[in-house]
Specification:
The chain is an alpha/beta fold. The protein has helices at about 5-20, 35-40, 60-65, 95-100, 115-130, 145-155, 170-185, 190-200, 205-210, 215-240, 250-255, 260-270, 275-285, 290-300, 300-305, 315, 320-335, and strands spanning about 45-50, 70-75, 135-140, 160-165, 245-250. α6 packs parallel to α10 (about 215-240) and α10 packs parallel to α17.
Length: about 350
C-alpha cells in the first residue's frame, strides 16, 4: 500500500529540518605544555594581563607600568574579556573540523585551535613592543563583563602569563562609571537615564545635597552586584589558576604610594632597574590625566561639574537610598576588601 502523500511530506520536512541542525563545535582544548614552549620560541617576551572592574584604574595602571623602559602595555584588546573574544577565530564548527582533521598532517593529531589563538595574540602583542624596543608586554582590558570566565579564558591560552587585578572602592567606581556613560554612551542609555543626565546638567545642586540620585534603583543595584561578582570570581579563579603568578593591588594604595606600589608590581613581573630616574618619570606620568582631558574635551560642562578630587566622589553624590541599596548588595564585600569596618556608613 503506497504511503499517503501527507505522510511523505511530513517525513520530508522532518528530514529537511534535521539536516539544517547547525553543527556544534567541540570544546576548545587548552594549550599543551609542548605547544606553549614552542610558542615561546617564536614569541619569547614575557606577557602580563591587567584585569579589573570598569572604572577601577586599569588605564592608569597601564600607563604607569609602561613607564619602565623594558615594559610596553596597551589596552582594550579584549582577547578574553569581551565578545567576540579571541576564541571567535576558531569557534566556527567548519574551522574546528579543519584544524582537527586527521588528514591535516600539520596538527600532529590534535586540534590546532589553541596554537592559532596563541599565535594571533602573541603576534599582536609583540609586534608593537618589539618596535619600541621592549622585552615585556601586556594588555589591560576591563573584565567586568566576563568576570571569572575571563580568567579561565586567559588561562586556557596563557597559563604561563602573569595576571594583575586592580580593585577600587565600588562606590567610587559606580560614580566614575556613571559619568563616563554620560560622556561616551549618552545615545544608548535608557530614556530615564537621559532624563537624569539632563536634570543634573541643568540643576546639579540637589544631587550634591543627596536629594537626587544619578542612578535609578535598578541601575545602582545592578552595578553593585556586578562589582561584587567581578571581585569574587576574579580573586577565586586568579588564585586557583595562577597561584604566584596572580597579583592583586588596590587603586587607592596606588594613588597614595605610587612609587612603592609600582616597585612591587615591577618586581612581581621580574623587572629590575628601579632607580631614581624611573621614580621621576613615574611622578611625571602620574600627574598627567588623559582621561580627564578627554572628558573635558567631550563635555566641558559635565567635566566641570564632576571635577575629580572635588565633588566627584561617592560621598558627595550618593543619596541615602543609594547607600542603602549599595549596602544591601555589596556591604559585606566592602568590609571584606577593607573599605569599611562595618555596615554603619
Amino acid at each position: 500500500m503506497p504511503t499517503p502523500f501527507s505522510t511523505r511530506l511530513r517525513l520530508a520536512a522532518r528530514a529537511l529540518l534535521k539536516d539544517r541542525t547547525p553543527p556544534t563545535r567541540p570544546p576548545i582544548p587548552p594549550i599543551s605544555t609542548e605547544e606553549m614552549e614552542e610558542a615561546r620560541l617564536f614569541f619569547p617576551m614575557e606577557k602580563f594581563f591587567i584585569f579589573g572592574h570598569a572604572r577601577s584604574g586599569t588605564t592608569l595602571l597601564a600607563r604607569l607600568v609602561r613607564v619602565h623602559p623594558q615594559v610596553h602595555c596597551n589596552w582594550q584588546a579584549h582577547f578574553f574579556t569581551r565578545e567576540p573574544l579571541l576564541k571567535s577565530l576558531v569557534e566556527n564548527p567548519q574551522t574546528a573540523e579543519w584544524l582537527a582533521r586527521r588528514s591535516n598532517r600539520w596538527n600532529r593529531g590534535r586540534d590546532l585551535s589553541p596554537v592559532v589563538m596563541r599565535a594571533a595574540s602573541d603576534f599582536i602583542l609583540e609586534r608593537e613592543a618589539r618596535r619600541l624596543g621592549k622585552s615585556v608586554v601586556g594588555d589591560k582590558s576591563p573584565s567586568s563583563i566576563n568576570d571569572g570566565e575571563a580568567v579561565r579564558n586567559l588561562h586556557q591560552i596563557y597559563p604561563d602569563a602573569h595576571l594583575v587585578f586592580i580593585i577600587r572602592d565600588g562606590r567610587d567606581a559606580a560614580i566614575s562609571h556613571r559619568i563616563q556613560s554620560f560622556v561616551d554612551r549618552l545615545q544608548i542609555i535608557t530614556d530615564e537615564d537621559r532624563k537624569i543626565y539632563a536634570d543634573f546638567m541643568q540643576n546639579p545642586d540637589p544631587y550634591y545635597r543627596g536629594e537626587r540620585s544619578l542612578y535609578t534603583e535598578q541601575g545602582i543595584q545592578e552595578f553593585a552586584l556586578g562589582w561584587v561578582k567581578n571581585l569574587e570570581e576574579t580573586e577565586q579563579e586568579g588564585t586557583r589558576l595562577y597561584h604566584h603568578h596572580y597579583y592583586r593591588l588596590f587603586y587607592e594604595a596606588l594613588l597614595a604610594d605610587t612609587w612603592g606600589e609600582m616597585c612591587k608590581l615591577w618586581s612581581f613581573l621580574g623587572i629590575g632597574g628601579l632607580d631614581e630616574s624611573l621614580h621621576i618619570a613615574l611622578d611625571v606620568e602620574k600627574e598627567s590625566n588623559p582621561d580627564a582631558d578627554y572628558q573635558k574635551e567631550k563635555n566641558q560642562q559635565l567635566a566641570k561639574l564632576t571635577e575629580k578630587g572635588r565633588r566627584g566622589g561617592w560621598r558627595n553624590l550618593f543619596t541615602t537610598r543609594d547607600k542603602q541599596i549599595f549596602r544591601e548588595a555589596a556591604g559585606q564585600a566592602l568590609i571584606q576588601w577593607g573599605y569599611e569596618k562595618d555596615l554603619n556608613w
